[in-house]
Design goal:
Chain lengths: 142, 504
């Protein structure tokens, strides 16, 4: 990596965004953020982050899903493959299924939701950093 | 009695006539009453056949100079009016019962058996009683005419009066029965005395009565006495029995109504209870959900600080933040479990639950816990037949097993064992989680599935635990149409048995 990777955090919980920013910056990542869906799409287009950390529940249960679908529908290779890691409340019971991570560094396409990985809230910063690192190194395709 | 139909819901207590749609069970009562009026019609066919047959027989054997002409004419008339009555009865049966007009009510009370009045079937009862009393009066007239042509006082047909008295006592009120009995008796007396005084002619039954028997006041007095006594005694006996029967019918109807009313009250209470349970559940879920977001942020923030990502942390700061983080973690676990519990209680039943291979699911859960069991020195083993299939939500069933296994490991000393077993039992699947742990005291046993309940013994042995794990297990099992039970003795381990429906 010549330049530090750029991470976008999209979450309406500004406090959590601030906390995650500290955690990510402590590892040298550059961090950009957005607090709602339109801003998230805008920042993605403008900044072209290397990875997106997305809150699935923001502010309603399915808002995050729409963000993913809208992004993936954009007509450019970058938007179809930029790694997305979603933050879920209790991932088992969300209306959609996604089985993106087989746990050994290989990735299978999400069955319904085209994201590369997810972690449950509350977030352990070490786990988050580890997953982002893996996403950036393997660049799994959807 | 046509008691085969289940008791219908009661009509409103205002005493309105029942509608035929809601009163299927009770409707059969009025149907039954109506059906009895057709007894007369059947009886009359028999009587007509009997009269013709007997006249023919007597004539054939030349036993009597009986007037066959009038008797045959009589039989023809009987057949004719019976045919008319049978048509009327059929029409009445097929026509809905009209509501009673005002004023007819006291008439009903006079005619109909008292126990059957006031049940809401007045119209049917009145129609039946009216029809029956008309038939009875008509029959008595005919019988008197028949008697006149068959020997008057000498005629054995006088016994036929008894049939009508019996039927009358069943169909009509006691008062009406005595009235009809009197009508019959007076008609008979009129025939006998008319013949005696020569007002009407006499057709002798000369083959077994002396020719002038009809002019003997001894014969007349004896016959009238015996027949009168018989008729009134039969009236008395039959109305007594019939009154008991009618009261039985009345009790049945009233009891069925009361039961239906009670059942409805219970249903309402049950609905209210369910409603309030659901409201509680929804409230719990909302609160837990609201708490969960901020709590998660607090936890993550504390971890970020604790791990030095926000800069160096002094020793005493680290200690305090560590405490704060642990407490936040406890709260987080409670809200997580509360959400699971609310979800298990509120979830809609799966339309078509998927079949789940139990062996694979159990092996997965065992795999998840093998590390923590090994770390504690507890042997974790699986004992299952490969075929077991259960229908339901795989995530929920997994949750059941995970909660039970986690508990079992937590409350089992190093060196002990935890066994997960499954077997098919008739149509159900039985899951067992058995440990050799500290066990549960008898006083705690009935409450282990309560929310937030942890026995003193359990709290002493192991810190942590939300006290919701078993409540979640129970909620999921119940929701899926199954159940969970526990057996345990202090110091001798615990066995949890989950029964799940093995068929969709």
């Amino acid at each position: 990596m010549n330049e530090a990777a750029k991470i976008l955090i999209v979450d309406d919980d500004r406090d959590l965004v601030a906390v995650l920013r500290v955690a990510l910056e402590s590892k040298g990542y550059r961090v950009v953020s957005a607090y709602d869906l339109p801003a998230g799409l805008q920042v993605t287009e403008d900044e072209r982050p290397d990875c997106i950390v997305l809150d699935v529940m923001m502010p309603h249960a399915t808002e995050g899903f729409h963000f993913v679908w809208q992004l993936r529908r954009l007509d450019e290779e970058y938007f179809k493959n930029v790694p997305i890691l979603i933050l879920t409340a209790i991932h088992e019971k969300t209306a959609l299924r996604f089985y993106p991570n087989s746990g050994d560094g290989t990735y299978q396409a999400g069955e319904f939701l085209p994201v590369q990985d997810f972690i449950d809230k509350p977030i352990d910063p070490n786990v988050l950093l580890e997953r982002i690192d893996r996403l950036l190194r393997f660049k799994p395709r959807i | 009695m046509t008691a085969s139909t289940p008791p219908a819901p009661a009509s409103p207590p205002s005493g309105k006539p029942p509608t035929s749609t809601t009163e299927a069970g009770e409707f059969s009562v009025s149907r039954e009453i109506e059906r009895r009026t057709t007894w007369f019609i059947k009886l009359r066919w028999l009587a007509a056949a009997g009269v013709i047959g007997m006249a023919a027989l007597l004539r054939l054997l030349s036993l009597s100079n009986l007037a066959v002409g009038p008797i045959l004419a009589f039989a023809s008339a009987l057949i004719f009016y019976n045919a008319v009555l049978s048509v009327i009865a059929g029409r009445l049966r097929n026509r809905p019962v009209k509501q009673i007009r005002g004023g007819a009510d006291s008439f009903v009370r006079l005619l109909a058996p008292r126990a059957l009045v006031g049940l809401g079937h007045e119209a049917a009862v009145a129609r039946t009683a009216t029809f029956a009393s008309a038939q009875i009066t008509l029959d008595f007239l005919f019988l008197a005419v028949l008697l006149h042509f068959c020997g008057g006082v000498e005629s054995p047909f006088s016994v036929f009066f008894v049939f009508h008295v019996v039927l009358t006592s069943i169909l009509l009120s006691r008062r009406a029965t005595y009235f009809e009995t009197t009508v019959g008796f007076l008609l008979f007396a009129a025939v006998v005395l008319g013949e005696y005084f020569g007002v009407i002619g006499h057709h002798p039954l000369d083959w077994f009565w002396p020719a002038d028997a009809y002019r003997s006041w001894k014969v007349i007095a004896t016959t009238l006495g015996v027949l009168g006594t018989t008729l009134y005694l039969v009236s008395y006996l039959c109305t007594t029995i019939a009154t008991d029967l009618h009261e039985g019918i009345r009790d049945n109807v009233l009891l069925a109504r009361q039961l239906a009313g009670d059942r409805r009250k219970l249903e309402i209470a049950y609905q209210t209870l369910r409603e309030s349970e659901r409201t509680k559940s929804q409230y719990m879920r909302k609160v837990a959900h609201e708490l969960r977001g901020p709590l998660g942020t607090i936890e993550t923030a504390l971890k970020v600080v604790l791990q030095g990502m926000a800069g160096e942390v002094g020793e005493s700061s680290r200690e305090l933040i560590g405490r704060a983080q642990r407490r936040a973690g406890e709260l987080s676990a409670v809200t997580h479990d509360l959400l699971l519990l609310a979800r298990a209680r509120e979830a809609g039943r799966d339309e078509q639950p998927a079949p789940i291979a139990v062996a694979g699911l159990l092996a997965d859960v065992i795999g998840d816990f093998s590390e923590s069991a090994a770390a504690k020195g507890v042997t974790l083993s699986l004992d299952t037949d490969a075929e077991g299939v259960v229908y339901g939500d795989p995530v929920a069933i997994r949750q059941i097993v995970a909660n039970l296994v986690e508990n079992a490991i937590r409350y089992t000393q190093p060196g002990g064992s935890v066994t997960v077993a499954s077997r098919s039992q008739s149509r159900n699947l039985v899951l067992e989680v058995v440990d050799t742990g500290i066990g549960i005291g008898a006083e705690d046993l009935p409450r282990v599935f309560d929310e937030f309940y942890r026995g003193a013994h359990a709290r002493e042995y192991a810190a942590g635990g939300t006290g919701l794990g078993l409540a979640i297990v129970k909620a999921i099992a119940k929701h899926g149409g199954g159940d969970v039970a526990v057996e345990s003795k202090l110091g001798q381990g615990t066995r949890f048995t989950v029964t799940l429906p093995g068929r969709a």
